[in-house]
């Protein structure tokens, strides 16, 4: 006969002693732990965020229900967990993983703790596969690997969010689940992101976790944790690849600073308590590529950080730069000059390097960055001179062609195979007689020509990821044909 055992859920009761905006002080809870869920009064949720000698400190997550001193508090000895599962794909949820898109409840697969430990070094493997961002200048010169933590940094309104969304758009058909986490931003931006999701059918493989500036400060603080937990379900349980874009960590730091001041934690630099570094490092460390024995899944993080007048040495930017695997720096001066995406090659770094790139891309971009940097330096020198020699003018023209090659429009990501086709044209002298202002139109015609006349070359390139003899032979044949027809 089977023995049936009923497990009693332990509960602990306390009461609210003091309310300070979204932080409450509670007495009577002697066995609670950090990150534990509480229920206050008529059903308001809170999470334990600290202790002092006389009180438990909790952060209120729902400000719609008023809380007063003396309200009853119930603790169930459970960690703070959120529902996760495949059914969250195609949905928009808040920082508690509750649907906010009006499409009804979401059936969960399981509950996942939001404050989890990052995978250990022994659970990881070195990164070896590229994550296609669709941004040419990044994929060619500052590649991102699956499992990498790549920071997107720059002044406001320079294209940071656009790059993050282009990376999400580029994952269509690549078996990568995408999560966009909006933290403390405006409703207008959320509506713009939703429109891009609709336009590019991202709902088929993506979701949005949103906590706007009008949401409670507790939800803004928890939003990136919940987004990471939803991603970890696919990484650990489905052995899949995941991309998470955090937009942005600056607003998250602001939320944590506000909470910390209410908790009376000692302020340090820029009034942030010292543990802000620990908060963000805990988050980004959850990215990585798992060993085959652990399923082989990966989670890539693209945190966005906003600078003030290009100050990358600020407290929050310098913190996050030190804990990521590189940064893509957006320069407001380049943006003003019309170079978009306005990525500064001098301040952008990928510590993963070219080892994750397609061999075809790696082979043709070895000297590209050096040529571009030399061009920019030469351009600065020639601005103050009335005239230049023919040789200098030729070098400047080639540099302008490279600059035009690297430009691209908003929300029009370029697939990796098309980037190879473009680089092959540059490497084989097809652009030598093309005027800089005609470069982008010429390259579009060249890409269309290859796709139309030799689709088998494109398919082979996607499969092999390198320039085989047959691909090069085919490209050379098409160069001769294209040159004849375009004359």
Notes on the structure:
With 487 residues, the chain is of the alpha/beta class. It has three domains: 12-78, Elongation Factor Tu (Ef-tu), domain 3 (Beta Barrel); 83-357, P-loop containing nucleotide triphosphate hydrolases (Rossmann fold, 3-Layer(aba) Sandwich); 363-486, ATP synthase alpha/beta chain, C-terminal domain (Lysin, Up-down Bundle), CATH 1.20.150.20. The chain contains 15 helices and 17 strands. The strands form three sheets. Strands 8, 10, 11, 12, 13, 14, 15, 16 and 17 form a nine-stranded mixed sheet that branches. Strands 1-2-5-4-3-6 form a six-stranded antiparallel β-barrel. A two-stranded antiparallel ribbon has the order 7-9. α4 (217-237) crosses α5 (249-262), α12 crosses α13 (439-453) and α14 (455-464) runs antiparallel to α15 (469-486). The longest helix is centred in the middle third of the chain and has 21 residues, at 217-237. Mean pLDDT is 91; it is low at 1-7.
């Amino acid at each position: 006969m089977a023995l049936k055992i009923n497990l009693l859920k332990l509960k602990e009761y306390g009461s609210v002693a003091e309310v300070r905006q979204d932080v409450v002080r509670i007495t009577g809870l002697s066995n609670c732990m950090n990150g534990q869920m509480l229920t206050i009064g008529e059903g308001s949720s809170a999470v334990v965020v600290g202790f002092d000698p006389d009180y438990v400190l909790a952060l209120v997550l729902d400000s719609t229900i008023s809380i007063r001193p003396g309200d009853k508090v119930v603790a169930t000895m459970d960690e703070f967990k959120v529902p996760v599962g495949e059914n969250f794909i195609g949905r928009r949820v808040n920082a508690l993983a509750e649907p906010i898109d009006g499409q009804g409840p979401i059936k969960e697969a399981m509950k996942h703790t939001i404050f989890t430990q990052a995978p250990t070094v022994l659970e990881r493997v070195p990164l070896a596969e590229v994550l296609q961002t669709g941004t040419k200048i990044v994929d060619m010169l500052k590649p991102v690997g699956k499992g990498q933590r790549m920071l997107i940094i720059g002044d406001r309104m320079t294209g940071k969010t656009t790059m993050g969304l282009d990376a999400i758009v580029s994952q269509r058909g690549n078996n990568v689940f995408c999560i966009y986490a909006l933290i403390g931003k405006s409703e207008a931006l959320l509506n713009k992101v939703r429109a891009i999701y609709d336009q590019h059918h991202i709902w088929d493989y993506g979701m949005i976790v949103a906590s706007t500036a009008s949401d409670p400060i507790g939800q803004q603080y928890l939003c990136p944790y919940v987004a990471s937990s939803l991603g970890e379900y696919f990484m650990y349980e489905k052995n899949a690849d995941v991309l998470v874009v955090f937009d942005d960590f600056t607003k998250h730091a602001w939320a944590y600073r506000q909470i910390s001041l209410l908790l009376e934690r000692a302020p340090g630099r820029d009034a942030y308590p010292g543990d802000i570094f620990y908060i963000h490092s805990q988050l980004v460390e959850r990215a990585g590529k798992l060993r085959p024995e652990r399923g082989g899944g990966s989670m890539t993080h693209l945190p966005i950080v906003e600078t003030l007048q290009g100050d990358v040495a600020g407290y929050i930017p310098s913190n996050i730069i030190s804990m990521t695997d590189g940064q893509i720096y957006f320069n407001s001066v380049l943006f003003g000059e019309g170079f978009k995406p306005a990525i500064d090659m001098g301040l952008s770094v990928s510590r993963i390097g070219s080892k994750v790139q397609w061999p075809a891309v790696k082979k043709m971009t070895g000297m590209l960055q050096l040529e571009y940097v030399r061009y920019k330096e030469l351009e600065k020198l020639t601005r103050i001179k009335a005239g230049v020699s023919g040789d200098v003018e030729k070098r400047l023209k080639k540099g302008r062609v490279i600059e035009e090659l690297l430009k691209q429009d908003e929300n029009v990501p370029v697939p990796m195979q098309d980037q190879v086709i473009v680089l092959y044209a540059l490497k084989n002298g097809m652009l030598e007689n093309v005027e800089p202002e005609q470069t982008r139109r010429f390259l579009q015609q060249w890409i269309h020509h290859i796709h139309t006349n030799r689709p088998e070359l494109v398919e082979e390139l996607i499969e092999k990821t390198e320039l085989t003899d047959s691909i090069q032979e085919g490209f050379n044949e098409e160069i001769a044909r294209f040159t004849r027809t375009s004359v």
